[in-house]
Write a structure and sequence with these properties.
The protein is an alpha/beta fold. The protein has helices at about 20-30, 45-50, 65-75, 80-100, 135-150, 215-225, 255-260, 285-295, 310-315, 320-325, 380-400, 415-430, 430-445, 450-465, 470-490, 520-525; strands at about 5-10, 15, 35-40, 55, 115, 125-130, 155, 160-165, 170-180, 185-190, 195, 230, 235-240, 260-265, 300-305, 335-345, 350, 360-365, 370, 515.
Length: about 525
């Protein structure tokens, strides 16, 4: 690697991303020093803060981590790593205790016991929640407050990572740029341990529930540095995004169906009981495809909460109620129009049970990683659980590292909210980015086929070739999109969140994880 003049040093670990996974890792590393990079002020733009359901944990009477693991494996359609599922669910109670100790106001009954919700494909009530549908926001507020008062954690806001830096085969830090300063010389932040916790890729799709900045940047950076990517084809589409003109689409939490809400079309027909014995509480991929096919056939789909909740929806699900009110919907008297939307990525950077990637010096956690827990279809509310379990594991794994040197001050990196928001708006609304998002929705969406996937790969290549200036941020997006489409083309079966209309059944020969490098994906793209 060439000498880089504009170099700063992170004392201890460097964490890229400030959602739950990144901040939990930082807290678990305390009192060891850590630097956290966040493109926006803490809590803004993090997927974790948008999570409505809660954290899945076998904490109720009669439940067990083993039962939770079995549900996880069942939802994951045959490719969940059994040992990972058993170990993660076994750690759930300890991680819930961490969150509660740091101030998360989980819902409790008069005796102090957790009030547990039910979500799709769970065999028991095991969703630890806050105010019905505010778990993500409440957890993040508590974690952020804890981070702010922890002297060993330095948070640098208003800076975005562009690329991983490597030296002699090892990740040694990241190249960054102040948000809004797209063409200035990047800053190199050197670190002995780099943790990538910068989210998933749902925002690569035109219809998504993800924050605007969650567009595959983390996986793209790692893939461009040579990391092995696992299961990129498995994208989970949430069945019940609220159908409005908003981008991203607001979410109607699965907990509503856990309370008994039903799905009907505009003819008043309830269609899920005929498709699955669990009806509306079938695994997400099944419900999402059912809604997709109704819409494709010209029908409209609605979530009906009126009979089971009535006016109680206003107090028990305040987030959903606010979304409805903002869209001009009265959920007490009207059904809620819904549509499938890109929601969660089961794939990501392949890591082991300690969160280590295939690149020395790089750990990955949260939605950017692929741990083997989710398989082909994530079980509801396992995402926040995975984030905190692997945050703790990574902290333990890298905790013995000694600081390389004292920190140099981060001169000239200050957050300008107006400038940052303008820069993000420009990037979000460029024609090239919007074209990429429509390619993914139209050709690599809820249902795929070989012709569409080959066209998607050709079109993505065309976007790169036609761009006046391919920035690192854009290349991270097209890299992730290429990996998803290439892996989807390679997997000639249907399983979980990956459904091929030309191969509609699962195949025993594909009952395993996909592993792919960017070089392999680009070779498939070139042959398309």
């Amino acid at each position: 690697m060439n000498t880089f003049d504009n170099t700063l040093y992170a004392d201890g670990a460097l964490i890229v991303g400030a959602g739950l996974a990144g901040l939990f890792t930082a807290l678990k590393l305390a009192p060891r020093p850590v630097t956290v990079l966040s493109p926006k002020p803490l809590g803004i733009g993090a997927s974790s803060a948008w999570a409505q359901g809660g954290v899945a944990a076998a904490i109720g009477q009669g439940d067990s981590p083993h039962a939770h693991a079995l549900d996880t494996e069942m939802a994951g359609a045959g490719i969940v790593d059994h040992g990972i599922a058993e170990s993660v669910t076994a750690e759930a109670v300890a991680r819930i205790e961490d969150l509660a100790r740091w101030g998360t106001p989980f819902d409790r009954d008069d005796f102090g016991n957790f009030e547990l919700g039910r979500e799709a494909a769970h065999s028991a009530n095991r969703i630890v929640k806050v105010e019905g549908d505010r778990a993500g926001w409440a957890i993040m507020q508590a974690i952020i407050a804890q981070v702010r008062k922890t002297p060993s954690i330095r948070v640098v806001e208003g800076i975005t990572a562009l690329s991983l830096a490597r030296e002699n085969g090892r990740v040694v830090g990241v190249y960054c740029r102040r948000l809004g300063d797209r063409y200035s010389e990047p800053v190199f932040i050197r670190a002995r341990a780099t943790v990538l916790a910068a989210g998933g890729l749902g925002g690569l799709y035109a219809v998504t529930t993800n924050p605007p900045g969650v567009r595959g940047h983390a996986m793209g950076m790692a893939a461009r540095a040579g990391a092995i990517i696992a299961d990129p084809e498995f994208v989970q589409f949430h069945p019940t995004a609220i159908l409005t003109n908003a981008d991203p689409a607001p979410l109607a939490t699965e907990a509503l169906r856990g309370e008994g809400a039903i799905l009907v079309n505009d003819l008043g027909e309830r269609f899920m009981p005929a498709l699955h014995p669990d009806a509306e509480l079938a695994p997400r991929d099944i419900v999402a495809r059912a809604n997709f096919r109704q819409i494709k056939a010209g029908r409209k789909v609605f979530l009906d909460t009126r009979e089971v909740l009535g006016e109680a929806i206003l107090t028990r699900f305040p987030t959903v109620s606010t979304y409805c009110r903002d869209a001009g919907i009265d959920p007490v008297r009207e059904m809620i129009p819904v549509t499938p939307a890109a929601h969660f990525h089961m794939g990501g950077v392949k890591v082991n049970d300690h969160g280590r990637s295939s690149l020395p010096g790089l750990w990955v956690c949260g939605e950017a990683s692929c741990t083997g827990l989710h398989g082909a279809n994530r079980l509801a509310s396992n995402s926040l659980l995975e984030a905190v379990v692997y945050g703790a594991r990574i902290a333990e794994d890298i905790g013995g590292l000694e600081p390389a040197r004292e920190l140099a001050p981060f001169k000239g990196i200050e957050w300008d909210e107006d400038e940052g928001n303008r820069a993000e708006e420009v990037l979000r609304n460029t024609i090239a980015v919007q074209d990429l998002r429509h390619i993914m929705t139209d050709l690599v969406g809820v249902e795929r086929n070989a012709d569409g996937l080959r066209k998607a790969l050709r079109d993505i290549a065309g976007l790169e070739a036609g761009a006046e200036r391919v920035t690192s941020a854009y290349l991270n997006m097209t890299t992730s999109a290429t990996l998803v489409a290439a892996a989807a083309l390679k997997r000639t079966e249907s399983r979980g969140g990956h459904f091929r209309t030309d191969f509609p059944e699962p195949s025993d020969s594909w009952e395993h994880h996909t592993e792919m490098t960017l070089a392999e994906a680009l070779a498939l793209r070139a042959s398309a």
